[in-house]
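Question (not urgent): is this output format expected?
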Amino acid sequence: QTQTQTTIIPWEKEWWVPERIDNMLYSLAEWRYKFIHEYFKDSPGNIDTDFVPHKASDYILYLPRALLIGLFSPFPETWFSKGGTAGGTLARYITPFETIIIWIGIFSLIFAISRLYRSFAFWIIFVFSLIFIYLHVVSEPNLGPIYRKRYGFIMSMVAIGFASVIDRRKANESNPNL
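Got this back:
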């Protein structure tokens, strides 16, 4: 392992990562560092400010936590709390209701996966949505931007989940032997 970048954060090049991708991952880590320490320093919506990647494998290790944040935030401890602005505080009083609906929709994806696992279109939407949600979480560790930028992706998944449950229910009503 050789150190390839040291401008803002120490970065270790890993043998299995092509140089071009490694440079992009370093740039993403640099952006995250600047976001935490310069752009939104001490913002009340910051999350996981202790995570700044130092090599490509750090992104893989952070994947479960990033998807937890991307799919299920804002978490209950931030509901009905004071935000950084009046608008942020108002949003924290509204979003819990929306979040509960999103959680139900995410869990309804179990039905969608069980019904659509052979559908290439489903997997394209599902995987692209997860990738872009993940990228938003690793690039900007603040719940406000994550919440706004993931919206289209998470709503696609929620819509598929709810549609699958509704479709399954209609199929059961029309054919009680199912």
